[in-house]
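User: Structure please.
Assistant: Input sequence and predicted structure:
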Amino acid sequence: MTNNHNASSFYSCYLFDFDYTLADSSKGITDCFHGTMAAFGLPPVDDIAIERTIGLPMRDAVRRITGLDGDEKIEEFLAHYRALADKTMTAKTFFYPEALPTLKTLRERGARIAVISSKTSHRIREAFVRDKAEHLIDFIIGCEEVKELKPSPEGIRQALARFALPPEDALYTGDSTTDAAAAKNAGVAFYGVTHGVTTAEELAAYPHQAIGETLETAAKLIKI
């Protein structure tokens, strides 16, 4: 893309998923699952089985990975998982090399930026604070700020309302089909990044402006 486009050609609002989009927290997640499963006497599973659930609501991930059912059992599992995560998750979460520079580029352009994730917002905030990058985003909408998680459009629509912007002014970037479906349901453009375990072909089954390997592409897309 050339530099002939003026600022109005770009989106004024950039929304991002977190896990496998801005950052890789897979080591922390798999370690917390393995530790909690061992504590509950559950048989071990491969890392890839856990990684394929990243981005899902936690209760759904626990059901899929462990086979546990019933709210009480799942809540007990999650309580132990959270205790481990409080000690290790942020230390094992790393932004992708181009993530913070891309946010900085968008910020310098005057873009509004928010994170919309099924992760808890305080856990996401910890990573930004640790890397002294909290000034690069306006706010975070995590699982505790919405009634319905993705693929519900609630989080995206909440962000648009806070920015007082229409859907056509926003681009949502994510790594999963759940992210793609949330963007579709919210009526916003979608950029699929292949940092995670979802393939480009799987993402391409949903409406999208582009699919690529890095976040830098998202910042170069212009409104269509």
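The mean pLDDT is 94.
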